[in-house]
Design brief:
The chain has 553 residues and is α+β, with helices and mostly antiparallel strands. The chain has 17 helices and 20 strands.
């Protein structure tokens, strides 16, 4: 007797399951890794990406590339997420974390095909990750923060290492000092990177970039009378507002009925009185720099200019917040009750020409927990990439300030972890030995890819590294790929340093992503989600939108 067919899922739903689905997900992740593989290291190549809006981006930053690739394969999107998480958490190592996750999947792909349970592989990966992270903690070198000269040197070395693989690598001496100075000016307890403003001005050379000890922002739109205002002030009193200081036009549908001309004049006078009361209350506080998020009209601009007061309207929220943090004032949403206690101050305010634009600069701020980096350069895409590179370096220096433990870069720590895991695996019985050995081999992807991108003989370099680390682990533990000298050497002695947190976070994120992909054995794709018109309910037959039912049929 035939069993009746039971339909559980909606017609048209695509289901894929079992080992073929798992292998398909792994292949998708490996395809993503192949895309960004060549961007790793000082000799990494850049990617030119044109999005759907025809915007061109040139970058070798892993997180930026992953974000712009618009990956649609559900499993492969996991790699995009870990790249973003690495970027948000530590700022650098985004390419490394994606490559490591892909290599872990590649190493266990054969085991999956041979029928090894995913849960066995996941258990082995997690055990290997714990061993590797604990080993990093043992190897990490800590620098005493009480010695300021050594501590600053540590920060500069970490910043320089992160810049090696970036577009600004050729100017790293110039930018390293700038980045460390910027981070050291922040509140050392909070280290809020939002308090470092980055402004981009096309034109000039990279060396024309400058660090402003305080706040700098581009001059906003100004009305007539602006040129009569002061362009520099010593010890100014600053007020920040979220108030509109201009005469408001009546609404289109407004209607005012008057019987006498004097009544109309009273309405006009009332409007003028409101604006003048606001201006007088500001002047009464003694302020001589007025900033507002909302427009400051031509009447207020001329009124302030006649009284030797500088004003700027339509200042962005980020810039206004940084001015408040630096000068000690607070943004006021009304002029009523405005007093001197609401004002801030700084040593000097000036308006200055930088390139083809005018900037307002607040220097010598007493609350100085903020600064501004003004970037110069040729093409717009070039400056954008410099900004991304500096962001990564700033994040690295922040992490080094919070966590003073460092390890050697250039694949040295990965080779040492690989050796350690291989030796540990020999003492473990069962299938876990194979998985931990596969994890150890996957770690070699970082030095191998550094060699490939630099054009070195990969086999020769990896063989030398394995031999050195196995011969005397204590003496050769920091040996990695020296890109500059094209040899295998002690990279810790050559100051190629990275915060230990970058490596720990990369390994844990890569393992979590690999375990997540390995734990998925079925994908159910709804037909409706693939249909671009599936956002709303289908219309009822015989009805046209919201209209009446069609008649006469």
């Amino acid at each position: 007797m035939m069993q009746p067919q039971v339909i559980v899922l909606k017609e048209g739903t695509d289901t894929s399951q079992g080992v073929p689905q798992l292998l398909s997900n792994i292949s998708a992740c490996l395809a993503i890794c192949d895309t960004i593989r060549t961007t790793l290291g000082p000799r990494g190549m850049d990617k030119l990406i044109v999005d759907s809006q025809q915007r061109v981006t040139i970058s070798n930053d892993g997180a930026t590339i992953m974000k712009l690739l618009e990956v649609v394969q559900p499993a492969a999107r996991t790699l995009v997420d870990i790249a973003r998480a690495q970027d948000a958490e530590v700022g650098d190592g985004t390419t490394s974390v994606v490559l490591l996750a892909g290599e872990l999947l590649k190493e266990v792909k054969d085991y999956v095909e041979e029928g090894v349970s995913s849960q066995v592989i996941i258990k082995g990966f997690r055990k290997a990750a714990d061993l590797a992270i604990n080993r990093i903690k043992e190897l990490a070198v800590s620098v005493d923060r009480s010695d300021k000269a050594k501590f600053r040197d540590l920060l500069e070395k970490c910043a320089a290492t992160s810049m090696n693989s970036k577009l600004i690598g050729s100017q790293k001496e110039f930018f390293t000092k700038m980045v460390v100075d910027a981070v050291m000016r922040l509140d050392q307890d909070e280290l809020d990177e939002d308090m470092i403003g980055i402004k981009k001005i096309p034109g000039g050379a990279m060396q024309d970039s400058l660090l402003v000890d305080g706040v700098a922002f581009k001059k906003s739109f100004s009305y007539a009378g602006f040129e009569q205002q002061p362009k520099s002030l010593d010890s100014p009193k600053i007020v920040c507002l979220n108030v509109e200081l201009e005469l408001r036009a009546e609404k289109d549908n407004a209607e005012v009925r008057v019987d006498k001309v004097s009544e109309y004049q009273a309405i006009v006078d009332a409007e003028w009185k409101i604006i003048f009361d606001k201006l007088d209350s500001i002047i009464a506080t003694g302020a001589n720099v007025v900033l507002s998020r909302l427009p400051i009209g031509d009447l207020a601009t001329q009124y302030f200019a006649d009284r030797n007061i500088f004003c700027a309207g339509r200042v962005s929220k980020d810039d206004l917040d940084r001015v408040c943090e630096a000068t000690g004032c607070r943004t006021q949403s009304t002029t009523a009750g405005l007093a001197a206690k609401h004002l801030g101050t700084c040593e000097r305010f000036e308006e200055r020409q930088i390139g083809g634009q005018r900037f307002n600069l607040f220097k010598g701020c007493p609350e100085a927990k903020t600064c501004t980096i003004v970037l110069r350069g040729g093409a717009e895409q070039f400056i954008d990439e410099v900004e991304r590179s500096l962001h990564d370096s700033i994040m690295i220096v922040r992490r080094a300030v919070k966590n003073q433990n460092v390890v050697a870069g250039g694949g040295a720590i990965e080779m040492e972890l690989s050796r350690y895991l291989r030796e540990t695996a020999r003492q473990i019985e069962g299938k876990q030995q194979l998985i931990i050995s596969a994890f150890a081999k996957a770690l070699e992807v970082i030095p191998r890819q550094l060699c490939e991108n630099a054009g070195f003989d990969t086999t020769d370099f990896i063989t030398q590294l394995r031999a050195r680390h196995a011969k005397d682990p204590e003496r050769f533990k920091w040996y990695g790929v020296d890109i500059e000298e094209e040899v295998v050497s002690d990279l810790f002695a050559k100051f190629v340093w990275e915060p230990a947190l970058v490596k720990s976070n990369a390994i844990s994120s890569a393992v979590e992503a690999a375990c997540l992909i390995l734990s998925v054995d079925e994908t159910v794709t709804s037909q409706q989600s693939q249909d671009p018109m599936a956002g709303g309910q289908p219309a009822m037959p015989g009805r046209g939108g919201r209209g009446m039912p069609m008649m006469g049929r």
